[in-house]
Design brief:
The chain is an alpha+beta fold. The chain has one helix at about 35-55; strands at about 10-15, 15-20, 20-25, 30. Helices cover about 35% and strands about 25% of the residues. A two-stranded antiparallel ribbon has the order 1-2. A two-stranded antiparallel sheet has the order 3-4.
Amino acid sequence: MLIVSAQAPYQMGGGAFAWYAINFDAFKGKFSDLAQAATSVTKIANFIYEIKSKYNTNPDKTFI
């Protein structure tokens, strides 16, 4: 069995990481950084592909 955990790319401070920023603004309300989110989707997809290739995982037993 292989278990893999990816670290998110954006540092939040205090040793925490995030896949994209979520901002809370008094005037605009809550909103997400969609550019960061899109970049993270690509990074995650590439990471999964690399892991599957490196470890030759069985597609029927690979869960995301």
